[in-house]
Amino acid sequence: MPAIDPQTRVGDLCNEIHPIFRRQSFQNISDFEYEALKPALQFASLLLTTPELAGFPHAILVAPYKHVPHPDDEALDQWAFQEKGSKLSTRDMAMYNLALNTLADMVVFVASSKTADKTDGKAEDLHIHYGETRAKRLISSQNTHLWHCSTIRFSREDVDAHTQSDFCNLYQSDHGIKRRTFETAKILLHELMHAMSHARLGWLDSIPLGSNKAVETGYEWENHVFGGVICNSNLAQSELRNDVSLMIGDWPAPSITRTYQRLGYPIDVLEEPSSIEMRWWILLVESEWFDKLSTTEFWEKTVPELGMNALRAPRRRGYRVKIAEDGSPTFFDSNSEDASLYGCTIPAEYVEDFDGEIVLEA
Question: pLDDT below 50 — which residues of the chain?
Fold first, then answer.
């Protein structure tokens, strides 16, 4: 078996990987590939089990829930949970960990390729950081309140990004290694939230938590932990754009909800988002955010001190983005005379410069 390149290691994390992400739960990947995924699985394990961050999954797996009428259609079933925004108590964590260990026997991860041919006959771009969760008809035989098992599919290309140094220029640099580790952990946990929902409620996956205005369990988790939905910076604008940058936006995001509705995905929007959203840069090359996430000191000192606020992605610079009816985004043109686009969308303490970028005032 070839040795893992030391450059693939990220930070100084040495925590154990949670049993949910154990080797036997990952199908159709080699031992070598699993070894390469370990930094992402260590990071995912911390996001999953840290008491200050576990309020959301605890709500899905353990907390009481109730049936409530849908605000638009009383015939629609809906279940309401209330996540705990503070650090879970010792008792809460004990119940949560018991449920997590049960879930570990009910979830499998499968690496699969989702490339497809375009209408012009050329292969579709690689679906890096793709994921989907499907509840299995097999019912858990364990004596537990969790009953539906799930299969989580994530991209074969994502595995390649961890194992092949020349896979893509996007992942060759130190910043790219941090990005792939972060995004792999994020997508696995995003899908795991759906698996938790299936385990608790069966085929239902319509669970509003707190006062959320849209129901999509994975994105709700991202918003709960990171303060927004994190996405690729696939918009061409300004010299700031580079191949190792990500963006974060508020949830619900019209670019996501409208795209999902158009594609027929089961996302329930309780309140229509604005047609203009803010997208904030998370630039790996100038932000310390990614650096600290992979350090033991951050998880042992900063997170206990700041709680969930420690994980909130920085919002220093960004753009207003116009969202079409089909969900496609375009940067706002600061020179446009269209009054409907130029509204009071800039948050307090930010200003818009000459090329339309929103920056935090000094």
Answer: 1-7, 116-126, 236-243
